[in-house]
Amino acid sequence: MTVKITGYKSHDVRFPTSLTGDGTDAMNTECDYSSAYVALSTSDPNLTGYGMTFTIGRGNDIVCAAIHQLAQRLVGKDIEELFADMGKTWEYLNADPQLRWIGPEKGVVHIALGAVDNALWDLFARSRKKPLWKLVVDFTPEELVRAAAWRYISDAITKEEAIAMLKAREAGKKEREAKVRELGYPAYVTSAGWLGYTDEKVARLTKEALAAGFNHFKMKVGANVDDDLRRGKLIRSIIDDPQHVVVKHDPQSKELEGKNAGPAGSVLMIDANQVWDVQQAIDYVTKLKEIKPWFIEEPTAPDDILGHAAIRKALKPHGIGVATGEHAHNRMVFKQLLQAEAIDVCQIDSCRLAGVSEVLSVLLMAAKYGVVVCPHAGGVGLCEYVIHLSLIDYISVSGTMERNVLEYVDHLHEHFVNPCSINERGRYNVPNDPNEGYSIEMHKSSIAEDISNIFDVAVPEHSVNDRAIRSEPGPSAILDIFGAKTSRGWWLKCAYGCGMGYRRSDPRSLTETYWLGPLVVSHQKAIASLSSDPFKRRGRLMSTSTIYNHRSLQPTGPPNQGPSQPHSHARINESFENIRAEFDAILGEANAVRGQKEEIEGKAVVQQVNELNIIRQSLYDLETQHNKVRQQFEEELARMRSELMTTRQQLAAATSGAGGPPPAGPGVAAAPGAPSQIGPGGALVGGGAPYPPGSEPPYSRDYPRDRPVERDPRAADRPGLGPLGAERGLGPLSDRDRERERLERERDRERDNRERERLERDRDRAPDSRDPKRMKSDRIKSDRPDPYSPSLANIGVGPSSGGPTPKLPPPPGPGAYGGPTTSGPGEPVVPSHTGPGLHPGPGAPGAPPPLAGPSSGHPTTGPGVSAPVGGNQSFPDDLDIHNVAPEWKKEGTDWFAIFNPKTKRQLDVSLVHTLMHESVVCCVRFSADGKYLATGCNRTAQIYDTKTGQKTCVLVDDAAGKAGDLYIRSVCFSPDGKYLATGAEDKQIRIWDIAKKRIRNVFDGHQQEIYSLDFSTDGRLIVSGSGDKTARIWDMVDGTSKVLTINDHDSLNNDAGVTSVAISPSGQYVAAGSLDTVVRIWDVQTGQLVERLRGHRDSVYSVAFTPDGKGLVSGSLDKTLKFWDVSALGGGPGAVAKRNKDGKRDDKGSPCTMNFTGHKDYVLSVAVSHDGQWVVSGSKDRGVQFWDAKSAVVQCMLQGHKNSVISIDLSPAGSILATGSGDWQARIWSYNPV
C-alpha cells in the first residue's frame, strides 16, 4: 500500500537554561535552549517522522514559521518516491525560488530545512525498522553518494572520488561496527566549562566528568583573559591529577598525539564562540597557551575563511589547532575552510546544516582532506542527533574513531523518548532500538502538542492538490503573543485560534505547565491563576519520561458575547505586562544585591592580598637589612681579631726576648714555609701570593676560628713541655684572655650551630621534582659531611674525633704546604696527620711527609702557584629589575635580561622560539651545523628546526613499555647529523637513525640511569656517564665498549655517580663530573685516569671543554663554576699519582685559574661558545648567566623560565643558545655582539 505524507505539526519549545548559566559563553551570555520541532504524519497511523532544529530563544517562532512554509511541499508525497533519491528530495525542498531569496542556503530558511530534512530521514529509518546510522551504514557506496547534497562542491570532491573512497572502506565495515558497539564512541564534555559557572561548580562538575570516564574537556573563553587563565588552570589541575582520573589514558598514544594531553592523558579544548577579530584571537589564545589547549573553537566570524587560516598559521608554533563549523551555514563554507587549510578540526552541526543530506557531503569532503570530524552537540537534541552522524563517519566514510571525539552536554536529554547515553568509559553508547529512527522524538508532555503547536496542517489522504491545503485557523493562526522574554527566563507563549498557553520551566529541572482555556475565559480567573506565582510551584524531577504536570483551567461559564471580548483581551495583555514589569524589577534588585556582594567580597580579597604582600615585602626588607648588619659585624670582628693577633704577637716577642722571631705585620709576605696569618679584613698574608683585590678567597666563609682548638697529641710524649704554641714562643695566655677566648668560642659555636641547622632545614625540604639527578644530589648532600664546614673538626678531622683516616686529601687549605694556619689570637691550630689535607708543621718530629694534593682551584702558599681569578662584578642579591636603567635591561612578555652595569656591555639577547613540551625538558643539544635542536623529556626525544621552530621529528621507543615515567636524560647528535643518541632512566643508550625514525643500535651495560652523552668529533666514539660510577666509551662501528670506573679508595664519598661527560676536541681525553665533587679526566686510548680536579664543595653537574681543548669549565651544586687550565695534560704536570724519584707523589696538576660566582642556587649546566669568548651557565635559580671567559666577569643575566634551567647548549655554528627547563618549555635564544 502506498504511504503518503498527510500533514505536519510544528512546535515552539523553549527551556530557561539561562537561569542556571547553562550554555553561557563569551558571545551568548543568556541562552534559553529551544527547539523548533516538527512531526510529519503519514497515511500509516503507526508511522510518523520527527525532526527539529536548535535555537537559543527569541526567534524560535520565526523558524517554526519557516518550517511551515517548507513542510507544505511534502504533503501528499509518496514516501518511497522521496526515499529513493534523498539527495534529489533535498534539492526539491531547497528549490523554492521565493524562499531562496531570503537565504540563499543560510539563516532561518536553511536551519528550518534542516528540521524538515531530519524529520524525513527519521521517517525513512523508522519505515525500515533501523536506527538512522544503521540505515545509512547499510547503504552501498552508490546509495550513500546519491543521498548527499552535491551542488557547488564538485571542485572539492566529485561523486566518482567519493564512491571510490567509500568502496575502499567497505572491507572493514563489519569489524568497525562491532568495535564501536563494544567500546562506544569517544566523547568530550562541555558541561563543566560554561562561562557563567562559579569556580566551585566548575571544579565539582569536572571531577564528576572524570569519575564518569571522560578524558576530553572543553571550556568557554573570551570574556576576560585572567578569568580564563584561572579557570583553565583550575580544570588542568584537576584533570592532570591522577587521583581524580578513573579511566587512565596514555598521553603518548596515537589517539592523543598532537592534542597536548596532560600526564594523565586528559585533553583540554577552548571555545570562544566567534567573539574576537583575527589579531585579537591570536593574541588572546597565545596568552592561554599556558593551559595547553588542543584547539581553539570558533575564534572569529564563522564566514571568515582567510581569518581562520591566519589564526591557524599563527597558533601552529604553539601547538594549538583551530576548530570551527558550529555556525558554518552550509557545505560551501566547509569546502572553503578545507581547501584553505584553515582548520584542524571539522565541527559539523546537525541543525545548522540543512539535515542529513548536507552533513553527508561535509563528511565526504573532510575524509578526503584528512581532517578529523568532532561534531558540535551543545544544545537540546543535538547529542541525540550527532551520535548517528559520527557512527556513519567512522563505519562508512573516514574509518577513524579514536582521534575523533563527539561533544556531550548533560542537559535536557530526559525530554526525548530515546535519549543518548554514556557508558562507564566516558563514551556514547550506540543507539540500538529499531524503532527510534533519528532518536529525536520528544515526549508529548514536553511539547504539549495540543496547545503549544503554532501550525497544525492536515489534508485528507486523497487530496494531493497544494491549493486544497487548509491552514487553520487562517489569519488568526499567530495571535498576539502575550508573554515576554525576561532577562533571566522564559514565559513561553503560544496561540492557536481559540486558545492560549502559558508555560514555565523551573531552573532546577522542575517543570509545570499552566493552561489558559479559550480566549473567552474570564480574564479575572486567568490573572488569578497566573498570580499564584508558578516560580514557587514544583513539579516532578526530570528523571522520568513524564516531565510536566499539566493543569487545565477550564471556563466556568459560557463565553461572553458582544464587544466585551476585545476588552477582556486587552485587560489580559495589560495584566501580563504588569506581571512582567514586576518580575523584571525583582530580578533587577536581585542582580544589584548580587553585584554588591561580589564587589564587597572582591574588595576584601584584594585587601587581604595587599596586606600579605606588605608583610612579605617587610620580611624581605628585614632579611636584607639583617644580612647587611651581619656582614658589617663580621668585617668589624675580623678587623678586631687581626689587631688583637698583632698585639699578642708583639707581646709574645717581647716576652721571649731577642731570640724570638719578629712579628709579621699586615701585608708582609713571609718566607716560604712560614705560617700564614689572617691580616686586616680577613685576608691571608704570608706564605704565598695574596688574593686579587675584590676576589673572595676560596672557602673564606669557613674561618679557622670555627674549629675547636686542637691540642698536639704528641705533647703527652714530651714531658716537661707545654702546648705546642708555648714551644713556639707565643707565650701562655692570662686567665682573663682565656675566659674571653672561651666566651668567643662559645658564641661562635652557637652561631655555627644555628647556621648548620638552617642548612639542614634547607636540605630537608622537598626536592624540585623537575630537576634531573635530584634524588642523588639530595642524598649526597644529606649523607656526606662537608669537609669545609665549621663542624669538620667535630666529625673527624682531629685525633680527638676517633674517626677513620681518610686516604685521599681534599683540596689543601691555606697553610697546607707552608705550616700551620693561625686559628685565633695567639692559638695556632696544629693539625693531625689524620685530618684530610692538613699536615703537621715541618719541624714536628715523626710527622709523615706531605701528601701530594690533587689539582684544585685554590692557591697554595708555596711559591710559583698563582691564585685563581674570580670576577667580582656579580649582580647584587637585592637586584630589582624595576630599578635598573633602561639601557642595562631588555624585557619580553615573559622574560627579561639584565646587563652588568659595572662592565662594558658587549651582548644583546633575544628570544627566538618557545618550544612547548609535554613534560619536563631534561636536556637540549644542537646539531653540529646548528640547524637542528634535539630535546629530551618523558619518553620522547624531539628534533626542531632552529630557524623556524617547527618540530621535524619525534622519536619514541614503543617497545619500552607504557608503565611509569621514562625520562630522556641526555641527547646528542652525531657529527654528520644522521644519528641521535639518547640516554634514559632505563639504563640504555639508543642510537636513532633520524631519517628513518628507527633505532640503529642499543648500547646496554650501565647499571643505573644515564645522565650524559657526547660524540667524538669523528663520530666513531660515543661516551656515556651514569649514576653507576662509570663512564663508558662505545665504538659505533663494532659496538665494543671501554669502561672508565671511579673506584678511588681515598674518595671522601662512596657515591661518585657520573653526572656529565665531555670529549675533548682532539678526541684524546674524556672529562667527567661526578657527585663526589671531583672532575676526572681519562685518556681515551688507554682508559687510564690522568687527572683529578678538586675544588668544588658539592656535586659537579656539568663539564665542558673549550673549543681549543686547553680549558675545561665545570659547574656545581656549590653555585659556582670553575675554569681549569688543562693545557698541560699528557705532560709531567697533571698526572695523577705520579711519583718522583724519591717515591713521593708530585703536587703538580691542572690549576683552577678562574672562579665564576654569582648564581643564587645550584649550577646545573654549563657551555662554552664556539669562539671561546663566552661561558654560559644555567641554574636552579631559573636564570642563565653569560660570563666573559677571560675574566670570569658576568656580562648578562637572563631570566626566561618559570622553573629550574636544567640544560643549556650553545650552537657550534652560530650565536644561538638553547635552554630546557622544569616548566615544560625549551627556548631558543640569540646572543649577538653590540
UniProtKB/TrEMBL annotation:
Protein's cellular compartments: Nucleus
GO annotations of cellular component type: nucleus
Compositional bias ranges of the Basic and acidic residues kind: 702-717, 734-786
Enzyme Commission numbers on file: 4.2.1.68
Segments of skewed composition (Pro residues): 842-852
Family: Belongs to the WD repeat TUP1 family.
Superkingdom assignment: Eukaryota
Keyword Repressor assigned: yes
Mapped WD repeat ranges: 968-1002, 1003-1036, 1051-1092, 1093-1127, 1156-1191, 1198-1234
Cofactors, names only: Mg(2+)
Disordered: annotated segments: 648-876
Organism: Leucocoprinus leucothites
Top-level taxonomy: Eukaryota, Fungi, Dikarya, Basidiomycota, Agaricomycotina
Biological processes, Gene Ontology terms: amino acid catabolic process; carbohydrate catabolic process
Name under which the protein is recorded: L-fuconate dehydratase
SMART domains: MR_MLE, WD40
Catalytic activity: L-fuconate = 2-dehydro-3-deoxy-L-fuconate + H2O
Keywords annotated in UniProt: Lyase, Magnesium, Metal-binding, Nucleus, Repeat, Repressor, Transcription, Transcription regulation, WD repeat
Stored InterPro entries: Enolase-like_C_sf, Enolase-like_N, Enolase_C-like, L-fuconate_dehydratase, Mandel_Rmase/mucon_lact_enz_CS, Mandelate_racemase_C, Mandelate_racemase_N_dom, RHMD-like
Compositionally biased region (Low complexity): 666-675, 819-837, 853-864
Domain Mandelate racemase/muconate lactonizing enzyme C-terminal: start-end pairs: 199-318
